[in-house]
Queue: 2 jobs
Job 1
Amino acid sequence: MLYFEDLKAGQLFHSPTHVLSEDELIGFARQYDPQYFHTDPQRAADSLFGGLAASGWQTSSLSMRLVTQTELGKMANGLIGMQIDKMRWPQPTRAGDALRVTVEVLDKRRSNSQPGFGVVKVRWTTVNQRDEVAMQLECSIWAQCRAQPQAEEAPHPAAQHA
């Protein structure tokens, strides 16, 4: 298990690789993003993408799956996202692309409202087999602390009557 205290700015986590098949690409798009440049190889050839391209949401979803397979995926309370910033897809993902993710810890701070937790800001970078960035985002995750702050001890009820 990993806890808030185990994470440090600059720390990197590396995922395994996943090769995206054309069947996976089209199947996801038919269900969640049914646009012709994601679902029809012939029509996609004449699109802005010049061929079949995965939905950015598929690249992001696949990235999430890969992140769960890193050591960061062993967070004590799970990978609970709080927000996403600066999400971008600078390079389309294609069938046959071998994607992998690197997660970098950017910074962290204890929560003011929930003392048993911290907020950790991370950057995900998903690259293909040519090291081209397919997706990048920054997000904040909710991380459980190992060391719980000590609450002030209340006096024993019997001591109040003495």
Job 2
Amino acid sequence: MDNLDKVAAIFQKCLLAENMTEGEVREFLASSRVQLRRCHKGEVVFNDGDVPQSLYVLLSGRVHIQKESFTGRHIFLSEIDEPGDVFGEVYLLMGRPYDMYVEAARDTELLVMESEAFSLTGKEVSEAARLVQRNLMRILARKAYFMHTKLKVLSSGSLREKIIRYLFWGMDGEGKIHLDVNRENWAQYLAVARPSLSRELGAMQQEGLLEVRGREIRVLDKAAFESYL
């Protein structure tokens, strides 16, 4: 594999490599089942309906997970832009085709791992691959928790409650939130129209509940904020 030093340095920061030594990381990456893939902006990593063959780790760039509706509208589901983030693993382990597609939002580098590299079928694997298997289970547990949190947000009654529950999970001890997504993608996550989200945020600012500056949000009235939780 080319650029092994660069790839190993990023992979070692990834949850898949948690508690692995540099030697174990290099042993795993030296496997022929692990390849480097470069995607140009707009290139599809995999399509809706494709049968999973690999797990993907983002090395650099950004990808969008999307779904095409019956009318041809492209629905944004989530964005992956942190080096070391993993995607595609759930469908691979379930052995079912993708029901969404992934597209490079800008020029992107991915680490592509074929299923045999972390197979859970009981087949004999290296100690390094065994460590990756263990870490993969941890990633799945964390994603299950994320989905549980999203369900709590979407099950809220009013739009204001959805907004506040969404912000609550990302708020620091000083009441500050930095959004990782733009307004349009945030609206799609909440399953509302962008103008509706903007109007409600404007109303919350007028009431002195929040201060919104781009992707930076600060809770001004914590008592009123928490009354919606």
